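Incident log, structure service

09:12 report received: a user says their structure output differs between two submissions of the same chain.
09:20 pulled the input from the user's history:
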Amino acid sequence: MIRALPVPVLRAVPLVLALAVSACTPIMDPQPEFPVTERTLVEAVPADARCRAIGTKARQGAQPAPFTIDPLRLGFPVIIVCESPGYSPTPETLYPRPQPSLVEGLAAGVLIDRTTSPYDASGAPVPFAQPVRPSPRDLEGGDNPPPGPPSSTPDPSRVQLRLSPTADPAPAAGSPASSIVPFRIVVKLRQPFFETRGERDAFYDTLKAERMALWSDIRRRAEVNCQDPDIPRAGQSATSPPALCQWAYRQIDQQRAADLRRVEIDRRRATFR
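09:34 re-ran on a clean worker, output below:
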């Protein structure tokens, strides 16, 4: 004779089955409800400076540093201008991170997006930075190569990729390694007035040394990058690096020289009380 189970036991059976099924279900990582906004941290020296950001598509009003900006919404390149009592308004330009690497990014240049980018007063397109990877055909001098190795012909749809020496080489927080948005940029304000010539020269000598160190770090990263087996070895010899690396080194050296010239101009503009 089969005895019926008590009612409380029958009511508990579905709950037990549900718990058993849930125990067998794999635990999935929660997915973000919205995509991550890639933001760059803006820091200033001195720390109490107020900064504003001007991009090619939008601008962000002045606020105390540190704070973050959305360079993709503002539009690369983004000029960040910081001000503080006793200092000159000082700009620093944020450019996109080179992709897929420092050397290849410099060789590929920046693709001009003529459909979304605004145009300046002269009618010239302002590039919205989208670094593109040069193909082997590009590097060998194909039909439409980027301005990379010296033997190639410049492509009018691309412009030179510029570097931000005070920007962190890492991608924005929470972004993949392929992100073109830098993690951080630092703006060191310039002093316009000094008591003596010696004080002025000491300030700008220190500033120049700091920026030379930043450019030296960029050059070292490029040299390490050139050891990557994915870098095309065309033009390499026992005494010369590949043509792609030679081109990248020249771009870094030229941009460093231009940056240091601006520091010298600021030094000469500084006056005495």
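09:41 both user submissions now match this output. Likely a transient worker issue. Closing.
09:42 reviewer note: The chain has a mean pLDDT of 79. The helical segments are 7-24, 71-74, 102-108, 136-139, 197-225, 243-269.
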